[in-house]
């Protein structure tokens, strides 16, 4: 392997250890991962769960699109749901993809220069 390729592989290894943060491996042979959401307390966790369930009820009931009257607070806190989605969005992994793209774009340019010189 050429020195440049070795350096690129070392860089990718360093980047992956810093950027793969959205999922954490669990112990066991099933290759299961966990994703973490942050909440202030049990009440906020309950609010997240209730709003997700209400959103699903509305999504399932295309015709009526109503939450059952028996549910006390019928409004859906979409901001809360979007906040959870943002927490789960793997921005660090996208940063890694960007860095790898830059590395291989530079590598590709070097290959093109080598071909042109021949």
Structure description:
The chain is mainly alpha-helical and 118 residues long. The chain has one domain. Helices cover 63% and strands 3% of the residues. The protein has a two-stranded antiparallel sheet with strand order 1-2. The longest helix is centred in the C-terminal third of the chain and has 27 residues. The model has no long low-confidence stretch (mean pLDDT 80).
Summary keywords:
mainly alpha, single chain, two-stranded antiparallel sheet, about 120 residues
**Gap from first CA to last CA:** 21 Å
Give the percentage of residues in beta strands.
under 5%
**Class derived from helix and strand content:** mainly alpha
- Total individual domains: 1
Helix content: 55-70%
Largest sheet: 2 strands, antiparallel
Quick structural gist:
It contains four helices and two strands; from the N terminus they run H-E-E-H-H-H. By secondary structure, the protein is mainly alpha-helical.
List the helices and strands and how they pair.
Elements: H1 3-19, E1 24-25, E2 33-34, H2 42-60, H3 78-88, H4 91-117
Antiparallel strand pairs: 1-2
Helix pairs in contact: 1-4, 2-3
């Amino acid at each position: 392997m050429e020195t440049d390729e070795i350096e690129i592989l070392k860089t990718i290894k360093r980047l992956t250890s810093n950027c793969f943060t959205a999922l954490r491996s669990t112990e066991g042979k099933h290759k299961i991962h966990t994703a973490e959401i942050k909440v202030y307390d049990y009440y906020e966790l309950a609010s997240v769960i209730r709003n997700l369930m209400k959103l699903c009820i509305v999504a399932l009931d295309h015709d009526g699109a109503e939450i059952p009257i028996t549910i006390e607070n019928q409004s859906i806190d979409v901001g809360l749901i979007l906040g959870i989605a943002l927490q789960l969005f793997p921005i660090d992994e996208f940063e890694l993809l960007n860095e790898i793209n830059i590395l291989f774009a530079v590598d590709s340019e070097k290959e093109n220069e080598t071909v042109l010189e021949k």
